[in-house]
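Methods, example record. To illustrate the input and output format used throughout this study, we show the complete record for Cadherin domain-containing protein. The sequence lines were provided to the predictor; the line carrying structure tokens was produced by it.
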Amino acid sequence: LDREQTTEYNITITAVDGGNPPLSSKEILNLKISDVNDHAPQFEQESYNAFIAENNPPSTTILTVKAIDMDWGPNAKVSYFLIDGDLNGAPLASYISINSESGVIYAEKAFDYEQLKSFKMQVKAQDGGSPPLSNNVTVNIVIQDQNDNAPQVLYPVQTGASVVAEIVPRAADVGYLVTKVVAVDVDSGQNAWLSYKLQKATDRALFEVGLQNGEIRTVRQVTDKDAVKQKLTVVVEDNGQPSRSAVVSINVAVADSFPEVL
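The corresponding predicted structure is encoded as:
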């Protein structure tokens, strides 16, 4: 007998005598099948995938896992547990928790995409039978990047009161490469796409900045009338929403010799 196939039977028994005509009577027996714990909980999915944006508040709900047990009563009562593990050198439970009754998985702390991009964990569903039966499922959690980092200028190095200057000879032709602004953004995707713009300049008609490559070049022929001391301010912006930016100042000396620069 399998309670999960048929939970009860109505059995009719008829008693007939040998007279002529025969006489009879009937009795109906109701037979209920009692449950034994012969089924383990089964998750509704073979695996679970969840996405959560970084910088989330603690106790943010990530997803819900659910398992069904075909048994009955206490044998069918499912409880959920995280299988112990480590994440970035810390116990998994310091990052994730699960409601043992509902299967709702929560974030215990804010995630940082730049430190942790994704991870896997195991969740166990266990029934209330004696002995209990259980099954595990893999949960994949992907951290989504937010634009929480501004671009960082690697070159030219900003040293505060520095008077170091890039030198442009007076014989420089149109398109002369003065220098190149190099910046990085530790975010991902479009949050890390950088653009370069000339914010201020002593002579805006003399220099331009490549929008994508950060190259500073001369726009026209350098002449004897151009001032020796030129100062440029370049702003580097990422493509996040809203965007973040960094500013770099560049000193340029228009001169043919070092004494002239001094």
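Annotations derived from this record:
The first helix runs from residue 258 to 261.
The helical segments are 258-261.
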